[in-house]
Specification:
311 residues, three-stranded mixed β-sheet
């Protein structure tokens, strides 16, 4: 997996198994996908979420995808199941730590996970952006930023969780071209994370173009097409079923998969499935509980590891 085509795809992934998953009131203010649960449902929701998580990991591993699983440690972190927001691991050996909007999400950052990853993969530099939390400058990892690792382009939509100036400064620091735009749902509300409306594969992009104002849309589509991506346009309704929240991964033998939830898969048209199926197998799992109460889906649950292997 060293050729240019595979640089976009993580060589391994890590996930955090939930022990106290649930509705997070702190994040609900900016996440329209979350649903509040009745207090007496908490135990049942936790059990269902853990079962969905375990079945998801089994499906991934059965396809030969390397999955590192860590247990949630802090019961005050109901969103720990979504680790892609606090860290990213890059091809050049960089590890980036990100500033989080919700105070209880800031507790998700864990040095022991970085240490465990470092046992197998080479870490050359750690960039810690988290002090920007004190300045209310938020940038939530690969929720906020969609990286094109081959062409060094970074896509992001401005929102309460994606700070414009910090995004541009970070792109300059890592020498990626920033493509910043605005995006709103069908009710005119800012979409909280870019990975809700957009997923980037090695040769395609799944994106809800209707969420981007027409005056900015061409800038985004032009860059995607210039970098060799076929655009698969999804509707607001499909985005509401998490059809934008997907991640392309690879098995140890090089086989490629586009990972998503069953809800997302069921929302796709036959034509969209056929188009995406030309590039990789579509792999999905039932994540209904996690989606309903956590407001995130398959891609949010996965932190991709792009780091080089240790010598």
């Amino acid at each position: 997996m060293e050729n240019k085509e595979y640089r976009q795809i993580p060589r391994a992934i890590f996930m955090v198994r939930p022990t106290s998953f649930g509705y997070n009131a702190e994040t609900a203010q900016s996440n329209a996908f979350q649903h509040k649960a009745a207090p007496d449902e908490a135990g049942k929701i936790q059990e269902l979420a853990r079962n969905e998580f375990d079945a998801f990991v089994t499906k991934l591993r059965d396809k030969g995808i390397e999955v590192l699983v860590f247990e949630q440690e802090n019961e005050k972190t109901p969103d720990a199941i979504f680790p892609n927001n606090w860290v990213s691991f890059h091809n050049d050996g960089k590890v980036v730590l990100y500033p989080m909007l919700a105070k209880n999400r800031r507790l998700e950052r864990r040095q022991d996970i970085i240490d465990a990853v470092q046992e197998k993969f080479e870490v050359k530099e750690i960039i810690d952006l988290s002090p920007n939390e004190e300045l209310d400058a938020i940038l939530e990892g690969t929720g906020s930023i969609i990286f094109d690792h081959v062409n060094h382009v970074a896509y992001a939509n401005e929102s309460p969780r994606t700070h414009k100036e910090l995004f541009n400064a970070f792109c300059k620091q890592i020498r990626y071209e920033p493509v910043l735009f605005t995006a709103k749902d069908k009710n005119g509300v800012d979409i909280y994370h870019t990975n809700v409306l957009m997923a980037l594969g090695d040769r395609y992009a799944v994106i809800c173009l209707a969420s981007i104002p027409e005056k900015e849309r061409g800038m985004v589509t032009d860059k995607l097409q210039q970098t060799g991506r076929q655009i698969v346009d999804i509707t607001f309704e499909q985005m509401g079923h998490f059809a934008g929240n997907m991640l392309q991964v690879a098995a140890k033998n090089g086989s490629k998969f586009l990972v998503m939830s069953k809800r997302a898969f069921d929302s796709l048209t036959i034509e969209q499935k056929t188009t995406l199926g030309k590039y990789n197998e579509l792999l999905y799992a039932d994540l209904e509980t996690i989606e309903d109460y956590g407001g995130g889906s398959a891609r949010c649950m996965i932190a991709g590891i792009h780091l080089p292997l240790n010598a």
